[in-house]
Amino acid sequence: MARQGSDQGPKPAPLQEVEMSATSPSRADRDRRPAELRVGFLPAHNFTLSALSLFVDALRLAADEGDRSRPIHCSWSVMSARPEPVRSSCGLQIFRNSPLVDPAAFDYVVVVGGVLHAGEQVDQAVLDYLRLAAARGITLVGVCTGSFILARAGLMQGRRCCVSWYHCADFETEFPDLVPDADRLFIEDRDRITCAGGSGVADLAAHLIGRHVGRAAAQKSLHVLQMRDARAGTDAQPHRGLEAAEDERVRRAILLMEQHIADPLGIDAIAGKLQISSRQLERLFHEATGQSPASAYRSLRLHFARDLLETTRKSVTQVALEAGFSDGSHFARQFRSFFGGPPRSVRRTPAPAPTEGAAA
Predict the structure, then answer these.
(1) In a domain, 235, yes or no
(2) How buried is residue 224: exposed, middle or buried, by Cβ count under 10 Å (0-12/13-18/19+)?
(3) Which domain holds residue 190?
(4) pLDDT tens string 287-327
């Protein structure tokens, strides 16, 4: 069972006890200066543990010199309306280290979503708190399915919203008046930030650290986490599907295809999972996308392979296997036919090799 550490400095006072007027602290005592970046977290029921931990660890590593984790440059607090532990989607539980406090104590309030269809994600107290934070001009952040929670609170009207490709159809169904973007890692639209989740949470955290603390601190966080330099919010999500189709059965079929890239399902198997015939699936795909299910599936896999070729150093054979092709030569023929060139033609120019004797 995970518990927030007690070495994060003084906890914010409960909401009713927060002083609304602040006095400038002495600059003589570095450890007592207000942090340049202050973040409050609201984990939902069945939240994604990696989304919370990546964000918090990036702040922790940027918060102090070395690896002492003192909240000097960054401070953070995990809040909950109730004292009971909050369960993550993997079953681990965490305890809050603060009740709901005045949102003015933070630069950002981050709601961490998770499993969509496992009961209520947040209670009324959290929804009211988010609305209060919005009214006071605090930037709200939704990570993973936190975008759903912000939308349910009525706080995403007139703003762009980033969601994972995995949950794009769910978002469109629940919020037909909002337009989700499932292509980017995260989107900042004025005082709202939404992030698709996954490793993109670390990129978002680095983006905010760079803004408030400095680029060096952001780089340090990612490098200690064994990650490369931060990707921009406009970078594409690693796994993009076809444009959303209106027919629910076609959307579900595309989702099945996206979930089985390395081990492709047969078209008959996909139709069986949808409880329709293969012939009916063929007809639905032609009406919705203008192509057959097999062609759509091949397109998904080839675009996935191209992303790997452009963003990793994996061999063409490795990429072929991860994209569900039986061997490199078959993959190369398919790739050339689809994109008009061989797989190696899309490789980004590799960085120059270090000179002999260069420092590691």
Answers:
(1) no
(2) middle
(3) 33-224
(4) 988 899 999 999 999 999 998 898 888 999 999 999 999 88
